[in-house]
Amino acid sequence: AMKADVRYGEEGDFTSQADAAYISFFVFVSLGAIYVLLVLCFRKQIQLAARALAVAALAVGQLPALLILPLASASLAIGALCGGGMLLLLLASCGEIAYGRPGFGSLYLDSRTEYLLLVAIIVSIWLVVFVRHTQHAAVGGAVTKWYLHRNTDRSATRCCGGSAVALGLWHALRYHAGSIAAGSLLITTLKLIRIAFFLLKRTFYQRVSRGLDACGCNGSNRLAAMCLCCISCCLKCVEKSLEALSRYAYAQMMRSKRSFCPSAAEAVRLLTTNLAGAASLRFVAAAFLFLGKLLVAAGCAFLGWRILVQAPPYDSALYSPLAPAVCIFFAAFAVALVFFGVYNMALDTIFLCLCADKERVDAGMPPLGRAHELSSVLGVPIDAPAPQHPRGKGGRRMLETPAERSGSDPSNNPFSRGSGVVDDGGYRI
Fold first, then answer.
1. Whole-number mean pLDDT of the chain?
2. What is the reported pTM?
3. Model confidence at 151, in pLDDT bands (50, 70, 90)?
4. Which of 94-103, 143-152, 324-333 is predicted with the least confidence, judged by mean pLDDT?
């Protein structure tokens, strides 16, 4: 502690405040130095992530109807939760109240009603996850259509807009509803396992706090508590990994028109082939997106605070604007979390399409769509082979086809009209 001095005062409060300011200075200097070192070490990855987010913003800017999907999915999710809550209340009202001492009682439900309650909870969570995954698939389909049309194509202006988003949503629900239901059921199962494990861990800690371990003996079991924490952390990591994999699987599913499991396996293979680029892009882009969410939330909170401080009657009626500003911050962060998911899915879809085009080039086939425009931006090198034009009589080269002049092959474009691509259900798209 600092000694008493005329600069800090003779009382202990002043010296403690000076100590706190002195230590805080070195803490902030250390954090700033670490931040500068991280920026210098990851400057290339930061530039790559910034260009990738610019590409995703370009796709969303040319497909403005994508921003309607979060509103629709949030409305449907809230409706599913409200319907599930009403169903739970209706089932709970079928029970009988067992009165105890005055003012207390318990609700008794038979086994059949308890089973129906459990099914209603599972179905409600599944519907919410299904709506969210349908949004991912629709965004993946729309961005894939945008990617497969170059800026020089006459159809590029037609593909960018509400028609591409409507077509992606239609394909997702018409041809891939079962695949989306399977993926959402997998994530729902993991969420239910985590909820059950959380309840088990809470029960264990309550028994430990009462002086009983899991075996009913006196004392606490620290080893069991540590194992529970490790298992909970592993379940959370598995859930996050599968959620990220499901996004790539939906992007590949909308691109290749295959079911969920083959698309997930193909997405894992493409990501493994380009592991370094995928890891660096995902890590830095996630940091950028998180900073964007914080910036939006902080801006809304500051704007709300200024309104509460200056606008009547809030300037005189409120005791403190801190609590409303905090509520505005969390509400704005939740809204930003929903809308930034569109950018996240668009970025994953574009990167996966570039990885697939890189394999096409390695196999001697020309890339599709905007591969040459975006390969240098996203750091995925694509060197197209020389086109092999057919030769006529006398060895003279024949004229190029319109597909070759436009740089895209309709037979390989799953969204082109008359392309002959047949999805898993046997329907021609």
1. 76
2. 0.73
3. low
4. 94-103
Which residue in the block uniquely carries the two structure tokens 């319109």? 402
Cβ neighbors of 209 (< 8 A, separation 6 or more) are none
- How many angstroms separate the CA atoms of 18 and 4, rounded? 10
Separation between Cα atoms, residue 238 and residue 187, nearest integer Å: 10
Look at residue 146 and tell me whether its pLDDT is greater than 70.
yes
Phi, then psi, of 202 in degrees rounded to 5: -65, -40
Between 380 and 292, residue with greater pLDDT: 292
Model pLDDT for residues 32-90, shown as the tens digit of each residue: 888 888 878 877 777 777 777 788 888 888 888 888 888 888 899 899 889 988 988 88
Picking from 248, 133, 237, the residue whose alpha carbon sits closest to that of residue 194 is: 237
Token pair belonging to 27: 């803490």
The predicted-structure confidence for 284-306, as pLDDT tens digits, reads as follows: 788 888 888 999 999 999 998 88
Bridge partners of residue 397, in order along the sequence? 391
